[in-house]
Amino acid sequence: MSVAASGYLRIEASNVDAWMDFGTDVLGLMDARREDAQGARFLRLDEHPFRFMIEPGDGDRLIAAGMEYPTAAAWQATCDALAAAGHEVTPGSAEQAKRRCVTAFASVKDPSGNQLELYHGRELDYVPFNSAAGVPAFVSSYQQIGDLGFGHFVLPAPETEATIAFYTDLIGTGITDTLYPPGMEGVQITFMHANNPRQHSLALFNGPHPAGVVHIMVEVETMDELGRCMDRAKAAGSHFLATLGRHVNDNMCSVYLLAPGGIAVEYGYDGLLIDPETHVATVSTEGDLWGHEYSFPGVNE
Questions:
Q1: Residue 148 pLDDT exceeds 60
Q2: Which terminus in the chain has less CB density within 10 A, N or C?
Q3: Where do the domains of the chain lie, and which CATH numbers do they carry?
């Protein structure tokens, strides 16, 4: 296993200002206030220069997921292995790398068509994190051992088996758990960990999704911070895609909110940590210990 963490996401938004208001006022992220010639805006949650790049466009979707490698050698070995396996690996230019605040990156698509940006050498921002909503910190590191990433993201993977093999054999993830949700015949969600203790940094859903991402997750340090986010979301009129609940496999206590444009964001607390070197993959047939009653716009209304 070589991939270190989920690094950043590039998100296309039809209303960038609305997404930024949601990110700062509801989620409690920090406006990084970086200059960008292409009109993107940036959200921070720790010392990384940004974790979410919000880019103007006609739609609302995930453009690409940045995945972090611990060293130049690990990154190069992964790029070489991908090319040898027949995948088209496109190196980023120096200018493009600078925009992402990385030393180098390369783009590749997984077998289901999801765009990845593999990188190493992230340049950090030492301006202290300052949440306008008063969130003191997000969970993105653990006991000084390194980066846990921004949280996790769930990708659509209709080419399921080929996509699972792509991530485990080439990208360098390990399978944590496979979930077969009750009452959802044929649905499979494969949870994958990077080389850090977060229970999963990536998951694969065995079907398509119009936004190119099923959901993204950020984690706070206390139940009170989760509750305060719920209050802010209610006051802002945000749609609760799922009520408060706790997952079985990763122990996350969370709610799901819809960002402007319809991308789902899980806001969680108390996620499970594992030993990525010794974890034994499990199979789950229950999704939640309690809660998480879902309300899909246009379906439950």
A1: yes
A2: C
A3: 5-127+137-291 (3.10.180.10)
